[in-house]
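User: two proteins, same treatment. go.

Assistant:
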Amino acid sequence: MGIGTVLQEAELEQFFETFQRQLEGKLKEQIIKDNPVFEDFQKTYRGLQKLQRDFQSMLQWAAEDQRGKEEERRFWGLYRQVAGWNASQLMDGLKKTGYACKRDPDLKGTFDRQGYRILELVRAGKRDEVFYSILRIFVSAKKDFPPLLAEAFKPIYSDELFKVLLFSFLSGVLGKEEDE
């Protein structure tokens, strides 16, 4: 480990400690003053999710850059750990998005009629047709396409993970809603 690595590690540690103190300070202050602002907590959560996804992308890039090098296995191990956590979060979010679509009368009927056809397209791995079918439902209902659902179509996800993510969404739309 060279001197540059030690300095960078100390800088990173200091950066995260400062970030954590500032984040906790603002949110704790609201709690202490008995005036927590939901939007601030929601923005913080979304920001942390974006940071986690961006970190996953950078980690994948770093792991790919290590091909044939000593650290390759360690980088890919960490990448799988981070990607698994992100995928789990995404699956939960997509199921909730599916439940929300089921509660929307403009979307429910169309998903009831076309949901099983879309399920079959997902099983067959036809990403482009799945995207088109779901997008058409949202456009015809004059609804915004959920950003979380768009995330599932990104090419960074393997075909197998894509199927799991879309099955999570469709289980919310087509299945029985569970009490949380």
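Protein 2:
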Amino acid sequence: MRQIVCTAPRTWSLLEESGQSLGTLVRPKWWSNNAELVVPEGLVQLRPTKVLHRSISAFRDDLPVLEVRYPWRGGMELVPMNDPGGALRVERTAWFKEEWSITDKDGSERARIKHRFNWKRFGYEPELVSESSDPLSAMQLLSLVHAIFIFQRRRSAAVS
């Protein structure tokens, strides 16, 4: 199974079983909504579509490739721009757990990500808990990892 590994401060790589990197997520600042993905498709920039907007889009050559939306009913939706019918729903498995289930439109679970707190680095780190036989692409998975970081930060800000 693939795994997500922290390779540097604010940098995570998606590795396959052999240790080869499939993609890298780089967040410039811990508080930033922007990030960069280095994936086989090329360099992808993650940034909000508009100022103070609830969604984050992935841009390749200034063209939107996918969008992560934060609907009012909770959770997240990952919508590819070329196939809006292939949207993925991301929800927490329980109210008190930092585990996220990624399901497709048929309701079958494609992956599960756990957001653990690392006391040594004093920050959250993602962990890929399970994957289906039809795995997500590196761009989809790392975009969702970034979206979960932003969701966690927004939720913490709302509480404080």
